[in-house]
Write a structure and sequence with these properties.
By secondary structure, the protein is an alpha+beta fold. It has three domains: about 1-80, Dihydrodipicolinate Reductase, domain 2 (2-Layer Sandwich), CATH 3.30.360; about 85-185 and about 275-315, no CATH class; about 210-270. Helix content is about 40%, strand content about 30%. It has eight helices and twelve strands. The protein has helices at about 1-15, 55-60, 70-80, 100-110, 160-165, 185-205, 210-235, 240-270, and strands at about 20-25, 30, 45-50, 65, 85-90, 115-140, 145-150, 155-160, 170, 275-295, 300-310, 315. The strands form two sheets. Strands 5, 6, 7, 8, 9, 10, 11 and 12 form an eight-stranded mixed beta sheet that branches. A four-stranded mixed beta sheet has the order 1-2-3-4. Helix 1 (about 1-15) crosses helix 3 and helix 7 runs antiparallel to helix 8. The two termini are about 60 Å apart.
Length: about 325
């Protein structure tokens, strides 16, 4: 029954890639793959796949698919590294805000006296892009890490507060609200990638033993300092020409530079290397209250837009 299991899995992967699978007989299938995967299969978009060894022998032009075979491993790699997407609509109990002026005042956190007046208030739909990244840290002891980065597309900023909030959702829209202006998904992805890079750098740095770096650094320093001391003792010899003295000085400088280079490489070599891919993408739609208001100070008056996010009850400027 093994070939049946792998045939089902292979079929699901190919269909998820946008390809087509048609079984022509027992354990034998004609496959059509999208053009974008042509480089992964030696320039082929059409293949004949056999899921049974005897069937493969009876069809010389077929590729035998089993666990560990080249075709299956390529398909599995595509499935693991190609992101999938999902759309969710948050369930919100109450779409209302109490005392919006005071909430805006606390958000601004200004010590200056502010006169805030809300001119209009309306519910809209905001979009949060959730990027699920998987990173493999490669070192003497490799490990993997999965991170979700939330980007508020109304502001284009990473949302840390909502990422820690339990969100209940439905698959179908719950409200007929107009959508607010959003940043592009490409910009949201760049923001998420930059944020992830900072997180991963911290993870990689913390994975390195400071004591190990100190020991390796001291070992390199001791070795090169001994070589430089020995080189410098040659200057005490009598009868050295100026040319010979210059050679000794140059060798000292070369040893110093090489020591510094190797010390710099120690941490670089000990810090795990990172391989990251986007595993999943989610768009979460959350009702938001748009607040258009005027803010008056002693010297200035301006009109601004704020958003009240109804789940975590955050207010933030647009």
């Amino acid at each position: 029954m093994k070939h049946l299991d792998i045939s089902n899995l292979t079929t699901k992967i190919i269909e998820a890639m946008g390809g087509a699978v048609e079984f022509t007989e027992y354990a034998l299938a004609q496959v059509l793959l999208p053009e974008k995967y042509i480089s992964r299969f030696q320039g082929r978009t059409e293949m004949l796949l056999a899921f049974d060894y005897e069937v493969a022998e009876e069809n010389p032009g077929s590729d035998f698919v089993t666990f560990g075979s080249e075709v299956f491993e390529s398909l599995l790699d595509i499935a693991l590294t190609t992101p999938v997407s999902d759309v969710r609509y948050a369930i919100v109990d109450r779409i209302e805000i109490v005392n919006p002026e005071e909430r805006i005042r606390r958000t601004l956190g200004s010590s200056e006296r502010l006169d805030i007046k809300v001119l209009s208030e309306r519910p809209i739909m905001g979009i949060w892009a959730i990027f699920v990244f998987r990173t493999r840290f490669i070192s003497s002891e490799s490990f993997e890490d999965e991170r979700k980065v939330w980007v508020n597309m109304l502001t284009g900023n990473v949302d840390v507060a909502l990422a820690d909030f339990s969100v209940f959702f439905e698959r179908e829209p719950l409200h007929e609200f107009p959508y607010g202006l959003s940043c592009s998904f490409s910009d949201a992805y760049k923001t998420a990638s930059t944020h992830l890079s900072m997180l991963n750098t911290e993870i990689a740095d913390n994975a390195v033993s400071p004591l190990g770096i100190i020991r390796e650094t001291e070992r390199i320093q001791s070795y090169y300092e001994e070589l430089m001391d020995e080189n410098n003792r040659r200057l005490s010899r009598k009868g050295l020409t100026d040319e010979r003295k210059e050679d000794i000085h140059k060798k000292h400088e070369a040893l110093q530079l090489e020591m510094e280079r190797q010390i710099n490489e120690i941490k670089e070599n000990m810090i795990p290397k990172q391989i990251t891919h986007l595993a999943h993408g989610i768009t979460l739609h959350i009702p938001v209250i748009e607040l258009v208001c005027t803010i008056n100070t002693r010297h200035n008056s301006e009109q601004k837009v704020f958003y009240y996010e109804c789940l975590t009850k955050q207010v933030y400027p647009g």
